[in-house]
Design brief:
Length: 349
Amino acid sequence: MKLLITGGAGFIGSAVVRLAVSRGHEVVNVDALTYAACLENVATVADSPLYAFEQADIRDRAALDRVFAAHKPDVVMHLAAESHVDRSIDGPGDFIETNITGTYNMLEAARSYWVAQGKPANFRFHHISTDEVFGSLPNDPSVMFTEDTAYDPRSPYSASKASSDHLVRAWAETYGLPVVLTNCSNNYGPYHFPEKLIPVVILNALAGKDLPIYGKGDNIRDWLYVEDHADALLLVVQKGELNRSYNIGGENERTNLELVKTLCAILDQKRPKDSGSYSDQITFVTDRPGHDARYAIDPSRIRDELGWRPSVTVEEGLEKTVQWYLDNEAWWRPLQARAGVGQRLGVKA
Ligand SMILES: NC(=O)c1ccc[n+]([C@@H]2O[C@H](COP(=O)([O-])OP(=O)(O)OC[C@H]3O[C@@H](n4cnc5c(N)ncnc54)[C@H](O)[C@@H]3O)[C@@H](O)[C@H]2O)c1
């Protein structure tokens, strides 16, 4: 199968690219190489005859038409997006252009290609989205996001992703484009860009800096190991029912404070400090404006219909992640010099 994957130089996209090539699929990685991209993420497959890279911006329709015509993919997995909530608070414009207009361009380029190819039956447009489109949950384990939960996005990022989900469903209804959607919870793991909570905590801890926790640290997230997520995405694009969405979660809800304390305990074991614990570096900082209290995924649909479950607990995944950051300083060190990394963003609201 030939997959056109957008955003394949980013965190999750690169995990999908690496896994797809390792399973013998052909991959065309389409990425504009924004501040969040790193071609090192796909270095292990870059020389494979199964892999091709196209630097293209999804805001550029003509470039997309060229890529579709040149590579003739069997399916599309659309992950390219502006993804950092804090940046969306400071500068929502890029999120509107890439996540909404860019997805519109992808849908139109895919539709015209699909029509020109005679509407092949196996074609799929798989849109990768977030559970943040559903809004915020109370701290009550009996309430979770299902695929039928009403949309209620709260940040510029989640509103732009919600808009893109609506566009994808509209293109299925209106034009018959064969689509599948997934909405996943918070990912973590190797190659996570060092502006997101988990890499920030690991790298600040090692540098002897404060470990910033927004508010009281009681926000709850359901943590999904990125390589598990990539496995689920490849399953959905091949076996998912047309025009259906699947929530993908890690079955591992933790408060941010619990998560950071677990990271500190792992670091205390793997790289002990001369005295004390890394948890001594925890500091509480002003909360993110509109910070959603809890996200939690009801994983029944993907488990019951496609037989998928995550393979690791968050403690196992964090252990692997910490080890990966300890072993890969040459990857993360240069990224810390990129604009905005290491600074507190998203407090201007
Ligand atoms: N990271 C998470 O926890 C998470 C959770 C739920 C959903 N998602 C979704 O998964 C997808 C991937 O997220 P990620 O964390 O890997 O993001 P990321 O920021 O690490 O990577 C995004 C990639 O998209 C590329 N890109 C951005 N704008 C582009 C444009 N205009 N044209 C072409 N390429 C462009 C970037 O260069 C980068 O390589 C996104 O759609 C995101 O909304 C992420």
